[in-house]
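// run 5 | inverse folding | seed 20
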């Protein structure tokens, strides 16, 4: 549950399919977990690009009947949770802009740490911004580029960006995908049975439309997708160390997604197994926090030779409590979202496995909930290391003062949440779980939030200029 931490956005793109709008709708819907503030589709029909977008969930912002009848052979979709720029319709994506190269629509996942510097320069050159999202920076860089072709202008513009990002860009000629030089934010390539290529933040978006996963887009790669044809190049000259956000595996990505050649579900189970070996507890039953912590709890139970059970259940019809305007409403949302199963926990010593502990408020409510349901002991086990550093690449933890592990000892956090014991996975345990010998095909993870260092050089003045409102892009 990650103490109501949220990340960036989800992007989807398809080219060369006469049901592009409908398939983009379903692909974007499958990425709903990555952003719930707004949703939108941009569809290419002949040489015209039209955008439908609105605030809310995919089913609220878009009408499936309308998209099912919408003509076009290419589309991009987007779900948003804002890090840069306030939550408003003007910042909802895809963005549509007219340039000297023609119309373009774009969607972004991630955060640009040099967006403020670039925006200031562009405004001094006469650029007029419509919104406050950093995604608009790329569109203006392209529009004002002196390169002769759109492709060259796009590559040169991407090379100026710093941070963690994945873009999908739709023009009248092609669909483009780009991933930051370190690969901090994910982007995958898939293909339908009919041969159309797809780009998406996660491979789970391929399954819903009957497509199959081909590979991850490489860090620094710029891929061009046309009807049944792809071309690839790099927009950066130097190959940087790979650094996929480790929280994609720990928490954000759906368990049926694949990243870096691995199943997200299997990785989370493995983290739970390692946690059990590092931090055992005398207990009667293992309980996971729905939904993302369930695999880790299963792994913990397997390694500890203890039963796993559903001691907490989730109300599927409660959504977006993290958007509540104040802390009191967010905390009441936890009680609406989760409830304890008394028959599972009453009279039992419980190990409560969660994937992370950020601020501690949700953890405190969960411990209280289990005690009220009759648990005699509650031992918290966190399947990631202490979260001590802010993230500037698309996760809503920019304020260090909100991070419990940065400001308190483990014992102080234990007292705050009211657990009988508290233990975290070690950094070495996380590395082992993410990159086991012989299983990690790619390797390289961003663990900056756990104090392992930022993959992109961050200067103090640049950090202070990163405007973060509520969470990932």
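// decoded
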């Amino acid at each position: 549950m990650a103490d109501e931490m949220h990340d960036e956005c989800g992007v989807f793109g398809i080219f060369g399919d006469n049901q592009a709008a409908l398939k983009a709708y379903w692909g974007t819907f499958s990425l709903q977990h990555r952003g719930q503030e707004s949703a939108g589709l941009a569809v290419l029909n002949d040489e015209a690009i039209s955008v439908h977008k609105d605030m809310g969930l995919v089913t609220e912002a878009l009408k499936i009947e309308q998209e099912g009848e919408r003509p076009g052979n290419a589309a991009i979709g987007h779900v948003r949770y804002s890090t840069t720029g306030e939550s408003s319709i003007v910042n909802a994506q895809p963005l549509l802009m007219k340039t000297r190269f023609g119309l373009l629509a774009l969607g972004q996942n991630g955060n640009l740490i040099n967006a403020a510097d670039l925006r200031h320069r562009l405004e001094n050159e006469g650029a007029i911004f419509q919104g406050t999202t950093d995604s608009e920076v790329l569109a203006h860089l392209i529009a004002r580029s002196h390169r002769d072709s759109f492709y060259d202008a796009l590559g040169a513009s991407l090379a100026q960006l710093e941070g963690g990002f994945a873009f999908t860009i739709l023009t009248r000629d092609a669909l483009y995908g780009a991933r930051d030089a370190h690969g901090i934010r994910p982007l995958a390539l898939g293909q339908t049975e009919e041969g159309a290529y797809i780009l998406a933040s996660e491979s789970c978006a391929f399954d819903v439309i009957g497509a199959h996963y081909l590979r991850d887009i490489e860090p620094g790669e710029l891929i061009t997708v046309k009807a049944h044809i792809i071309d690839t190049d790099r927009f950066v000259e130097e190959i940087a160390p790979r650094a996929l956000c480790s929280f994609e595996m720990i928490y954000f990505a759906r368990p049926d997604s694949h990243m870096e050649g691995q199943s997200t579900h299997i990785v989370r189970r493995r983290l739970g197994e390692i946690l059990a070996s590092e931090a055992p507890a005398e207990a009667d039953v293992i309980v996971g926090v729905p939904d993302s912590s369930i695999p880790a709890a299963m792994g913990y139970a397997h390694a500890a030779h203890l039963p796993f059970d559903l001691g907490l259940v989730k109300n599927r019809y409660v959504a977006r409590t993290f958007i509540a305007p104040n802390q009191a409403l967010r905390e009441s949302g936890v009680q609406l979202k989760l409830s304890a199963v008394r028959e599972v926990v009453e009279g039992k010593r419980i190990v409560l496995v969660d994937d992370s502990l950020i601020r501690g408020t949700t953890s405190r409510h969960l411990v209280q909930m289990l005690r009220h349901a009759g648990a005699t002991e509650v031992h918290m086990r966190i399947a990631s290391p202490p979260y001590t550093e802010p993230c500037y690449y698309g996760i809503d933890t920019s304020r260090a003062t909100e991070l419990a592990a940065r400001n308190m000892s483990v014992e102080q956090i234990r007292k705050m949440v009211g657990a009988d014991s508290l233990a975290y996975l070690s950094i070495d345990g996380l590395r082992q779980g993410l990159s086991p010998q012989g299983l990690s095909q790619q390797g390289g993870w961003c663990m900056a939030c756990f104090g392992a260092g930022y993959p992109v050089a961050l200067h103090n003045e640049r950090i202070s200029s990163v405007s973060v409102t509520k969470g990932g892009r």
